[in-house]
Fold HTH cro/C1-type domain-containing protein.
Amino acid sequence: MSDESAFADRLANAMRAAGYEPRPAVLEREFNLRFWGKPVTLQGVRRWLRGETLPQQEKLEVLAAWLNVEPQELRYGKRAVNRIREAKGRWKSTISAEERQVLEKYLALPVAERKVVAQVIDAFYRARQSTGDEE
């Protein structure tokens, strides 16, 4: 399934969940009531619902606010959003305060210096891997 057709399914489901029929005329009317930019056409929203195109980010945000869903959930789906949240949760729970400070200092360095630090870390890691040392 393409990104566009998966988005179309999520959009139609979100419309139903919000109490709207997932029809182009309904989507065009409700979207344009909330969007302050150039109105979208019936053909444009039909392409969203058919899975032919994806809305631009600003339009996605309006859709999400109207349908009461997170923009990233509407665009990528719940599973993708949950995987990202789980990965962030694991990262936050396994890092110490001292390690967090080191990472913050690393991120404050200019890009060229961060590259050097990354190369040093990579060299240590490869050396550790080649000796088979675990700790």
